[in-house]
Amino acid sequence: MGRIITIAQQKGGAGKTTVTAHLAVAWQQAGHKVALVDIDPQGSLTRWFETRTAVLNGAADMVHSRISGWRIEREAQHLARTNDLVLIDSPPHAETEARIAVRVASLVVVPVQPSPMDVWATQPTIDLGKQEKVPVLLVLNRVPARSRMTDALVSEIRKLLTPPAVDLAKTWIGNRIGYAGALLAGRAVTEVDRGSTAATEMTTLAEEILGRLG
Ligand SMILES: Nc1ncnc2c1ncn2[C@@H]1O[C@H](COP(=O)(O)OP(=O)(O)OP(=O)(O)O)[C@@H](O)[C@H]1O
Ligand SMILES: [Mg+2]
Which of ligand 1's atoms lies nearest the C-alpha of 45? Predict the structure, then answer.
């Protein structure tokens, strides 16, 4: 049985879709069978996947499903039978659907930008994980080059932690233009420039999350 990972965060634009697509590629490159589930009506992950499939001349290298509502749970479990990792990308501000997606998962990955708004918006997603008894892993995303402001915000984020149920990934994702560029081309930074800092940090994050899944 494969593992189901839900990427959730009520705050819009925190990096859910960016992280989902990049983890999917990193795990695919590491030899795992990956399935994507897009439950966001915006369909950004689906657009990326369609671009990717076109770039690969129709030979998709991962499974993709776009779905909503009560069917999420069955679809994710169904995909977990034939894939190693099932990633669910969820929309912002989605109480019911996010709850279903969290309930079915082994781990909830929550991108958090070091901004006050992101930090304040994170508690409801943490609560969702607690209520559904699913471990939550916060992932710092779009971290600017070292600044005192970042340090202050990271200490605020640490106050939200109650490991192991709610933890913060050791790997931080930087603020790098390469992430958007790769996605626009239906790719990931680990394919576009394997030697880049972005590729290294994303590969490290993918390994860290697998380690946490056990
Ligand atoms: N690490 C990063 N470095 C630079 N830009 C980033 C990074 N992560 C995300 N972005 C940019 O931030 C914006 C929002 O990212 P993304 O769409 O992944 O967030 P989201 O949480 O899925 O948004 P939504 O809530 O609308 O679904 C995009 O323009 C994306 O390119
Ligand atoms: Mg999104």
Answer: 22
